[in-house]
């Protein structure tokens, strides 16, 4: 199984898009996307310095555009799974077919501008907490009134809150932990971003999303999201909610992912995956940063994605599990039954309680892929609606 990952803010580097402009049509594409982005993507990706592309309002649409730009050079029809870190989840949603590339870039532009505006309302920031006992780290953050904005796995938690609270954390770090202040404009993924969430929700309400055509993991809890509208809701909620990349990586391991391709600017997520999954057998990883990396990326796709010739639309007709637990289908619901969108197919018993599994499309229940008391994990196929196997 192959996973394609889209990185988030902080992965950008000055001039990182320069090599891509040598490919035919790339500059025109970027100029077209600059309109919904509200920024000059060509200049930002080639000429702008580090300070300029660190600006949240510019960085977010630039990162989404760069991931989608590289993805257009790849045969992704048989890719099994996509995920993105923070703003990278917008690119992942577009690759999953939830909405168009233009919609993803529009949302990234709005998200970036509104988060930058929210940062100006109060002096806040972020710091990486490396190492230490996880429970002690979280307790220390709570003591200082800080939020765990990112839980990235591999012993890395990003704290966010007021600058004064971050200073106190640095002066009294948890045992065996290092504190590294991050050069960011404010406390992302915390309640301090509430105005940005509200503004993004207004714009997102105008989107008509589609169901994902491949497994799409959510940063909120690492689960697969089968419904387009639910995904949009989660993307909006993500502005103030912590990024649980640790849970996304746990799902990669649960699903037995064997190959990982990180889109540009690549390296950060690949490093996290390599460290987190080494105990269970790290997948083969390719980082795509320049056109020179395209042959290796295409080779990885050919060897780790689905069977050749599989139609991507068939994935959109598969209902997947949203959580880890034990599945139980609705009693009396048999293959051949006609389903309606939103109909309950069964439930998963989890440690937190039952989670309903619903149909994301209408049509005949062609095949049960999970049965009574089967263990399931996020992204595990539950049933097939219409279409062919």
Automatic annotation (TrEMBL):
The keyword Transferase applies. One of its GO terms (molecular function) is acyltransferase activity. It catalyses: holo-[ACP] + malonyl-CoA = malonyl-[ACP] + CoA. It is an enzyme of class 2 (transferase). The keyword Secreted does not apply. Its EC number is 2.3.1.39. Gene3D superfamilies: 2.40.50.100, Malonyl-CoA ACP transacylase, ACP-binding (3.30.70.250), Malonyl-Coenzyme A Acyl Carrier Protein, domain 2 (3.40.366.10). Keywords: Acyltransferase, Transferase. Coiled coil: none annotated. InterPro entries: Ac_transferase_dom_sf, Acyl_transferase_dom, Acyl_Trfase/lysoPLipase, Mal-CoA-ACP_Trans/PKS_FabD, Malonyl_transacylase_ACP-bd, Single_hybrid_motif. Pfam families: Acyl_transf_1 (PF00698). Residues 5-313 form the Malonyl-CoA:ACP transacylase (MAT) domain. PANTHER family: MALONYL-COA-ACYL CARRIER PROTEIN TRANSACYLASE, MITOCHONDRIAL. This is [acyl-carrier-protein] S-malonyltransferase. It comes from Micromonospora antibiotica.
């Amino acid at each position: 199984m192959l996973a394609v990952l889209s990185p988030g803010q902080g992965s950008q580097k000055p001039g990182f898009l320069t090599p891509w402009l040598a490919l035919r049509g790339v500059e025109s594409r970027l100029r077209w996307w600059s309109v919904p982005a509200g920024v000059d993507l060509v200049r930002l990706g080639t000429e702008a310095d580090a300070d300029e592309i660190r600006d949240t309002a510019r960085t977010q649409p630039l990162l989404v555009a760069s991931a989608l730009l590289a993805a257009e050079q790849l045969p992704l029809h048989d890719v099994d799974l996509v995920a993105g870190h923070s703003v990278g989840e917008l690119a992942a949603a577009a690759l999953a077919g939830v909405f168009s590339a233009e919609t993803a870039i529009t949302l990234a532009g709005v998200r970036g501008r509104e988060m930058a505006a929210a940062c100006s309302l109060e002096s806040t920031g972020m710091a990486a907490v490396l190492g230490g006992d996880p429970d002690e780290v979280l307790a220390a953050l709570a003591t200082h009134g800080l939020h765990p904005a990112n839980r990235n796995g591999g012993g890395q938690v990003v704290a966010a809150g007021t600058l004064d609270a971050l200073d106190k954390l640095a002066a009294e770090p948890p045992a065996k932990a290092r504190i590294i202040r991050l050069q960011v404009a404010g406390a992302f993924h915390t309640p301090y971003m509430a105005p940005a969430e509200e503004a993004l929700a207004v714009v997102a309400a105008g989107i008509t999303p589609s169901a994902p055509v491949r497994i799409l993991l959510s940063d909120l809890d690492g689960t697969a999201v089968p419904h387009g509208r639910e995904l949009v809701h989660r993307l909006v909620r993500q502005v103030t909610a912590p990024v649980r990349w640790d849970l996304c990586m746990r799902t990669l391991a649960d699903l037995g992912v064997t190959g990982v391709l990180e889109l540009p600017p690549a390296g950060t997520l690949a490093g996290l995956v390599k460290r987190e999954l080494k105990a269970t057998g790290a997948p083969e990883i390719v980082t795509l940063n320049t056109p020179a990396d395209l042959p290796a990326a295409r080779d990885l796709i050919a060897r780790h994605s689905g069977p050749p010739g599989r139609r991507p639309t068939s994935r959109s007709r598969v209902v997947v599990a949203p959580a880890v637990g034990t599945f139980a289908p609705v009693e009396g619901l048999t293959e051949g039954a006609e389903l309606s969108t939103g109909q309950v197919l069964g439930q998963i018993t989890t440690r937190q309680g039952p989670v309903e599994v619903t149909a994301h499309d209408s049509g005949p229940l062609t095949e049960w892929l999970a049965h009574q008391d089967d263990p399931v994990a996020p992204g595990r196929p539950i049933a097939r609606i219409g279409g062919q196997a």
